[in-house]
Amino acid sequence: MATIFTKILRGEIPGEILYQDDHVFAIRDLDPKAPVHILIITKSEIPGMATVEVAGDHMHIVNAARAIGEQLGLVGGYRLVINQGADAGQSVPHLHAHLLAGRPLTGDFA
Ligand code: AMP
């Protein structure tokens, strides 16, 4: 069954796609932890960091983060976080990074 993120990509459930390229797409997080909270998601349904088979998948996320940072003019900086597994609180088993910005980012990200 498709993940919630794949359903957004396909337009089956609502979600504005802010950025996409051949490998990843980006949406705003439903429950933002910062003024800017964007999810950068692989188009392939890779379950998470621990199951990435192609090393390039990580770089596609990082490259997209840089492009989004420039697109949104995040000159003050941003943080990129990937949760892997239960201890990190990963709730959607589809590889994604959280891009956080718009306030000073201190402490843990939960
Ligand atoms: P993680 O806990 O790292 O797996 O992150 C999953 C994130 O997906 C959480 O921050 C949720 O708020 C977010 N999320 C879940 N469903 C949606 C949705 N339909 N649209 C946007 N963000 C979502």
Describe the structure.
This protein is α+β, with helices and mostly antiparallel strands and 110 residues long. It has a single domain (4-101), classed as HIT family, subunit A, CATH 3.30.428.10. It is built from two helices and five strands; from the N terminus they run αβββαββ. The protein has a five-stranded antiparallel beta sheet. It is globular and about 40 Å long. The model has no long low-confidence stretch (mean pLDDT 93). It binds adenosine monophosphate (AMP). Residues 4, 15, 27, 29-31, 39, 83, 89-92 line the site of adenosine monophosphate (AMP). Adenosine monophosphate (AMP) binds at residues 4, 15, 27, 29-31, 39, 83, 89-92.
Kindly state the percentage of residues in helix: 10-25%
Report, as a whole number of angstroms, the end-to-end distance: 27 Å
Computed Rg? 13 Å
Proper CATH architecture: 2-Layer Sandwich
**Quantity of strands, as a count:** 5
The description of the largest β-sheet is: 5 strands, antiparallel
Overall shape: it is globular
CATH C-level label: Alpha Beta
Largest sheet, spatial ordering of strands: 1-2-3-5-4
- The CATH homologous superfamily name equals HIT-like
Ligand types:
adenosine monophosphate
- Count of structural domains: 1
CATH topology description: HIT family, subunit A
What string, H for helix and E for strand, traces the elements in order?
Answer: HEEEHEE
What fraction of residues sit in β-strands? 15-25%
Write down the overall mean pLDDT.
93
Structural class by SSE content: alpha+beta
Total count of helical runs of at least 4 residues: 2
